[in-house]
Amino acid sequence: MHQKEMELPTIPSIFLCVLAAVVIYFVALYLPVGHFSEAGKHAFAVFCVAAFLWISNIFPLAVTGIIVLFLLPMSGDIFSQDVYSYFGNSAIFFVLGAFILASPVMRSGLSKRFAITIIAKFGTGSKRLCMSIFVLASIMAFFISEHAVAAMLLPIVLEIVTAANVRKKSRFAFAAYMAMAWGAMIGGTATLLGGARAPLALGILQDTFANNAQFAHASHIGFIQWSIWVIPIVLIMLALASVCVLIAAHNTGANIQLARETLMAHKKQIGKITKREILTLIVVLFTILLWVCYGTAWGLDWIAFLGVIMAFSLRITNWKEVEKDVQWGIVLMYGSAIALSVALRNTGAAAEMVQIMMRLGIESPLVVLILLVVLAAILTEIMSNAASVAVLLPIGLALAVEYGIDPRVVTIAIATSAGLTFMLPVSTPAMALVVQSDHVKIHQAMAWGVGLKLAGIIVITLAMALYWPLLGAF
């Protein structure tokens, strides 16, 4: 059993995409819409190019980030040193520290031991086995990136499916793979550690209102505060997705005994817990405890770096491993997205884009929020979830000012909606990994994903209308 090789874009397709980007830039620059300043027109044109490149996915996110950094200073009204300064945003260093800490978790074998132990203990039938994968993926995604969770669990799921001796179109195989993907994606929205979009959204929020005294109280969201706002959404979506897993895993006829024998053999093979695993667990738990208790007072980035220093001091990781494991392209994407959002704000482009939208006659703040949630849900299926946040959040925060909405509400609503990706492989590596397997077809994932996507929009809307006002929103 093998994974399909990813097709690389051809040179003609890249050329056509670049040509389209150039056309989009000049059309947006000279389009007689709104009342943009000269600098605002340029920022708006760069925004249109970035959105197109993120949607087309012809270049990696980091390369599109470099293109944004190249284009922004070209007008002469936005200076290079100002653009590059946004790489100092605390959210970037927070996620960098989180990625570095995730490296020893994987390299030490701690994550694999945890996964195999849990699945072997609770997976006594096809439904229970799939549910143990689902619950495990969701819990792990609370603390490390959903991308890393999918990468760690995929080989284990593959061996379980292989050992179960099932056909390519097996319902059990489909349920096992989707349990991993759905669990990781939903669980990854519960905390700031689960994915790229949440720290990026936090960084855009902070930089947008950094010098705005009126919104100073709403320019920061703490580690535990973020989870309090989203945990009801996560729990409801986990419950709904678990029902889907149970239905998919019902009466599959898979040989679970063979699968369990494979798991038990793996459990015996990994042996006793090592000193490195124990120290890694201590450092990670200590860092998470500090994030929860002192994240707001000390800074999430400062605590992340404290954990990194401890990891290197205790010799549970080394720089060669970190270099291979950290997604360095994310740093480029983050910095460019934050720079673009600030450029849209400072040049007045974001405000003008909002004025254009307000001419549609929408008066209710809740309707505006629902529209943003729906747009985020759609965008995240055709581009990376972090990219959808980068495209939509600057406009959403400008709308928040105009409609008197708490910016934290807009930030969490867009980031959470962007994280619930159930249909296409473009949005997140978790979906890309399962769709590339021999057991999951895109049309199958989409058929199940449509219901979960609609449920996600409804659940977030109910949270905005009923739960978030209790937390001081609106």
UniProtKB/TrEMBL annotation:
The protein's name in its UniProt record: Divalent anion:Na+ symporter (DASS) family protein
Membrane topology classification: Multi-pass membrane protein
Pfam entry (one): Na_sulph_symp
GO biological process, one term: carboxylic acid transmembrane transport
Parts of the chain that traverse the membrane: 12-31, 43-72, 84-105, 150-167, 174-196, 226-249, 278-297, 326-344, 356-379, 386-405, 411-435, 447-468
Record has Transport as a keyword: no
Any single GO CC term annotated in Swiss-Prot or TrEMBL for this entry: plasma membrane
Location in or out of the cell: Cell membrane
Keyword annotations from UniProtKB, A to Z: Cell membrane, Membrane, Transmembrane, Transmembrane helix
InterPro entries assigned to the protein according to its UniProt record, in alphabetical order: Arsenical_pump_ArsB (IPR000802), SLC13A/DASS (IPR001898)
Main localisation: membrane
Matching PANTHER family: SOLUTE CARRIER FAMILY 13 MEMBER, SOLUTE CARRIER FAMILY 13 MEMBER 2
MF GO annotations: arsenite transmembrane transporter activity; organic anion transmembrane transporter activity
Domain of life where this protein originates: Bacteria
